[in-house]
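Q: I'm a student working through a structural biology exercise. My instructor gave each of us a protein and asked us to get a predicted structure, then write a short paragraph describing it. Mine is ATP-binding cassette domain-containing protein. I'm not confident about reading structure output yet, so if you can add a plain explanation after the tokens, that would really help. Here is the sequence I was given:
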Amino acid sequence: MQKIGKGKKDLYHYHLKDDEIIAVKDLTCEFINSDNKTIKAVDNFSYVFKKNQIHFIIGNSGSGKSTLVSDFNGLLKSRKGYINADGFEIHGKQRKIKKPKLLRRIVSMVFQFPEYQLFKDTIEKDISFGPKSLGIPKHKSFLINKENIKNIITNDFDNLCKEFEIKCYCDQFFNFYDFKFKKKKRLKVKVLFFKKDTKKILFKKTYDYDYISEDKVSYEDAKKYLTKLGLTEDYLLRNPFGLSGGQKRRVAIAGILAIEPKILIFDEPTAGLDPQGEQEMMDIIQEAKRSGQTVIVITHTMDHVLEIADNVIVMDNGNILLHGTPYEVFTNPILLEKTKMEIPKVINVINELSSKNSKFKQLYDLQPRTCDELADAITSIANKKRITKGK
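A: Happy to help. First, here is the predicted structure for ATP-binding cassette domain-containing protein. I'll explain a few features afterward.
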């Protein structure tokens, strides 16, 4: 990792390459425990995450995995180190993260039990909440000029009166606009009186475009992400608390996907799921990668790591013990002895077969990731043996 220059207050800066998405430099996160001792949950961590890959972070409990990724989207703010998340820089020397909402539009986290974050009375509202609360607008300008404000009222006057019965108020608006235009905040409150919602801003030429179309787009977005996770449109108006556990989790994840972050972080995504639910979660993660997103997953389920990981980071005592491909990690005897971590079932079978017959050492080169792939690889090796004998 290279330093490319000094900015304000002599801060460190790193320029991401085209295939990079997150750069971490010397990140250290310290806590004071009950005995008043300093504990380093993350200790001088440095790494560059490649774009559009599935990165798994594994390690024993207490190795710093969750603390590390919590720094990536600003849930935690470490005082030492540096993070560049798709161009958004976080410096440990700075006391606060500037524009945290912008950071969370880049990096979104799916917690261990995401269904616990549901709280709206309909699924559509729950899915739409994230984008709206983070200020992700469909249109980005407001109060373009005086003429447009007049158009909102005069060209769509009938709709306004029909909807809100405010005919008498419209005449008063023009005088306010002419004399107090410079007081933009008060102006916005007056304009938004029509909707009785000062959090929204009128800026389009007609009332219908400004409000009805916006709500329609929100509904269509919610529909898109819900159906993407295997639930039909008729679920949108249902109460999420009447769903099964697996369905609640899919709704919660749809709400995260609706933010359209470039980086998705999953913390123990399969916790509490049955085998079918676990496989569905793996499919969701792989689909995110196909959509161009970068995915970081924390898990203790090594079978999932072997199945879909592009890259594996093994953490111990707040730092990297080893990183590489799944086979580089799970066939490293020194690492396995040190961490005592679980070995994926597929590799366990390969180890057993290879210890009894050397011909099965070919399986390490074939690198099957699932039980089906392992069965095909074993069959292929066995068939080659028969063909050789036949010749």
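A: Here are two points you could use in your paragraph. Residues 106 and 261 are 5 Å apart (CA to CA). Residues 207-228 form the longest helix (22 residues). It's a good idea to check both against the output above yourself.
Q: Great, thank you!
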